[in-house]
Input
Amino acid sequence: MVKERFEDALNKLEKIVSKLEDGEIPLEESLKLFEEGIRLSRLCNQKLEEAEKRVEILMKGKNGVIKPRLFDPSASSGQAPSDESDSEEDE
Amino acid sequence: MRLPLRYILTVSELTREIKDILEMQFADILVEGEISNLKVPPSGHIYFTLKDDLSQIRVVLFKSQARSLRFSPEDGLHVICRGRVSLYEKRGEYQLILEEMEPKGIGALQLAFLQLKERLEKEGFFDASRKRPIPMVPQKIGIVTSPTGAVIRDMLQIIERRFENVHLLLYPVRVQGEGAASEIARGIEYFNEQMEVDVIIVARGGGSLEDLWAFNEEEVARAIFYSQIPILSAVGHETDYTISDFVADLRAPTPSAAAELVVKDKRDVKNTLQFLEVRLGSEVLQTLQEGRTHLSHLNKRLKDPKKRIEEDFLKVDDLFNRFLFLASWIVNTKREKHLHLYEGLFLRNPNQKVKHLRRFISETERRLLQNIKHSIEIWRQRLEGKMGQLDSLSPVSILQRGYSITRKIPSLEILRDSSQVKEGDRVEVRLFRGTLVCGVEKSEKP
Output
């Protein structure tokens, strides 16, 4: 099943609002549109909060596997994953 | 070496002499000319003729030197060559063996850039039609850049400020020098293999054409082209354009601009959403209210307003009468019941009991009547209340407030829309007191 993307949901919501604002829509249909609009708006809000806050750098461990580690930009050491660094142990 | 006048040289001897002179005299020279007759056989050595208006010379650039050429030699290209003259004894031909070659008037790198750009453009690498949209709210962002320096720091700051909950994955690479292009390409490929991130940013700070060169390499261009995930290219300053900028789905003038393009300000997005929600709600509310008004206007049997009220009065009077009738009937019935009891009692106990019973009956009667009167009173009040409501809803009170009812003559169709009549029609206007007959001078749309 395809996940509904944020921009698609937002576009649909905009379309619904436009439709309601322009047209002579019968009451029953406008209530249905309203329900769908609310669902879409809730979905959008949810997607905004879904993402996790995390900043990671990918590093290659001794066995060659690339793993993410927490990244602090102020610490100036950093190497391409292709460099194996002895001081870092793989967890 | 001075030869005696009559010494006869062999061809080889002569050739040898000439070779020595040439090779010594022209051991390391710079020559400028135009390339023509270019041949690049499978061996990898490059052969061409360097010429100007009056003369030409054969040139060879061996494979080992050819490898370090940044640009592709072409017929017609003006070049400056550095090399030595050599004589090939076997054929008695001299040629120029090159060490280095540079295009004249333009840097080798610049030429290489133009050549690659032209070639990739022909292959469709820059086609606008294949560019994909950047997701509006990416949840995971992949960044291919150096882990040290201001670029990544600035980008992180901007992203954090705009949207605090984003997951960022940094694939650290060298951004210049030997092998940098491979690392960058590898980073893009890695993100494509994992298919974790929603968008990739490829970034590098400002620098010379030489510094930015990795982002002009074909390897990087291909990695970007084949990426399934949309890619933003943010290399150098605003005026720097690299091949990766052309191939990418979107170019950002600087890495900081890339951060701003990829991550919308969360507050703005939320405001947009909220605004839509408000409009959504108010639209439906309005529709509901209109519906209600429409229903109350649907007074199909709107007769003469005065008659309407009279009808209601009649109704109420009728109800009152029925009530009184009911009330007296109840009392009568009850009295009969009590008489029955009374008779029974009388049979058993003559005089004393009669007095009590009489009192009992009149007391009961009194209470019954009181009850009924009370009920009638309640009923009356409720009816009066309803009357009041009817009154305020009735067209009469609306008229009293200054509104008027306009109807078309002769159909007496009630007018709500100016399009129902045209200039010259006649209309009846009912006021609170009296009516007017008017002619339509002009019909205007709202």
In short: Residues 299-303, 341-350 of chain B have pLDDT under 50 and may be disordered.
